[in-house]
Amino acid sequence: MPPEPFVPASTTPLQDYLDGPAPGATDDHLVVPRSLAQSMPLRWQQVFVGLLADLHDAYGHLPWPDYMVVPSRWELLVDLDEEQLAAAGYVADLGPDGQLEYRNSADEVVPDPENHRVLAPVADPLPPASGGRIEPRPAAPL
Fold first, then answer.
1. What integer pLDDT is reported at residue 66 of this predicted model?
2. Which helix (H) or strand (E) holds 120?
3. SS3 of 73, please?
4. For residues 30 and 51, what is the distance between their CA atoms, to the nearest angstrom?
5. Which of 65, 102, 109, 139 could cross-link to 113 by cystine, CB 3.0-4.6 Å?
6. How far apart are CA 76 and CA 78, in angstroms?
7. Rounded distance, CA 127 to CA 33, Å?
8. Does 142 have pLDDT greater than 80?
9. Which of 7-11, 62-66, 107-111 has the lowest mean pLDDT?
10. What residues does 94 pair with on adjacent strands?
C-alpha cells in the first residue's frame, strides 16, 4: 500500500474553525463569555491570557472601539414582542385590511412574517462573570 500523500496543515486554522458552527462566532467577531473563560482550568487561562496579550500587542496601535454585546438569537418575526421587534428594526401594526402586518426599517411590508427570521435580543442564558466559577463539562467522546 503506498504511503498517504503529505497534506500540509491549514494556514488559516482559526478561520477554518470559526467558519463552522462555533458558539459566539459571527462573520466579523468572536465573543468569548468572560464567566466561562474565567471558569476554565488554570493552565488554559494562562495560555489564553498569553494569546490575548499577543493579539493586543500586535494590534494595540489600531483605534479599538468599545463593544456592546447583546445576547441574541434567530427568531421568527411573529414570535417577537414589541421591544424585540424595535431592537431588530421592525414594527407590527394593523394594516388597511385590519390584519396585523410587519414592516422593516425602510417601512416595507414583510411579505411572509410567519417564516421570516431575524436576529433578536434575548435574555442572556449564560451566568455573569460575577456569578463565580461554572464547572466545565468535558465534551462527549467521539
1. 95
2. strand 117-121
3. strand
4. 14
5. 102
6. 5
7. 9
8. no
9. 7-11
10. 100
Q: What is the DSSP letter of 69?
A: -
Other Cβ atoms closer than 10 A to 113: 19
Output phi, psi for 117, to 5 deg. -100, 140
Per residue in 8-62, pLDDT (tens digit) is 688 999 999 999 999 999 999 999 999 999 999 999 999 999 999 999 999 999 9
Show Cβ contacts of residue 120 under 8 Å, excluding neighbours closer than 6 positions: 72, 73, 74, 75, 80, 84, 85, 87, 88
Q: Structure pTM?
A: 0.75
Read off φ and ψ for residue 76, nearest 5 degrees: -70, 140
Measured over all CA atoms, what is the biggest interatomic distance in the chain, rounded to whole angstroms? 74
Residues 6+ apart with CB under 8 A from 126: 33, 35, 36, 71
Q: What percent of the chain has pLDDT over 70?
A: 94
Angle (CA) 98 103 105, round 5°: 155
